[in-house]
Amino acid sequence: MMKERVKMASVTTRPFRIGDTVVEPTLGICRVQGIRNMTVDDINEDYYVFQSAQASVMVPSSQLIKRGIRKPMSKEDIRKMTNTLRSPVTPVRGDARTQYLEYQATLKSGDPTRISKLLRNLFILDQNDELKGKEKELMEKARTFLVEEITFIQGTPKTQISGDIDDSLKQMYKKKLTKEKDATKAEAKAAKKK
Length: 194
Prior knowledge:
There is one protein chain. This protein is an alpha+beta fold. The protein contains 7 helices and 4 strands; from the N terminus they run αββββαααααα. Helix 3 runs parallel beside helix 5. The longest helix is centred in the last third of the chain and has 36 residues. The protein has a 4-stranded antiparallel beta sheet. The radius of gyration is 22 Å and the shape is elongated. Helices cover 59% and strands 16% of the residues. The chain folds into 2 domains: 56 residues, Thrombin, subunit H; 111 residues, Up-down Bundle (Methane Monooxygenase Hydroxylase, Chain G, domain 1).
């Protein structure tokens, strides 16, 4: 009797069930194919088997949060992400190697908010001809990650989602240029008054 209670308690504390759709940052959208209880290095633990169109991977339950495995975005999350893409900013350049590692960590996190900010910043750098070769690859990976997830959620064709993201980025860049132009005019006006 006691064993059954323990088993039932562990089942109810599992964050995902077999058949759930999740986002695994290295695979993208995938399904929970199974949950296996295994002993590795004398540690007994549940291992989640995630299956995508390309591959499958087993992840111990203790690593789910660290790996960034989560449920797909909600429609509200998509709206927030779109607003992030439309918000003009001025990316700060730092040490190229450090920045590249930060970009990779952002992609590995699987966090759509962080990835949308990364995409926005890389887009601005690309428009200013400041983007380096590897950064262009990361920009495409960020775009693809967001397109794949939004396509799954909305059931809209990838080309339309990609176009919507591009439109949001172009609107943002246009706002950024307008703000910079207005700031330059204001500075010139202030300088004339002195």
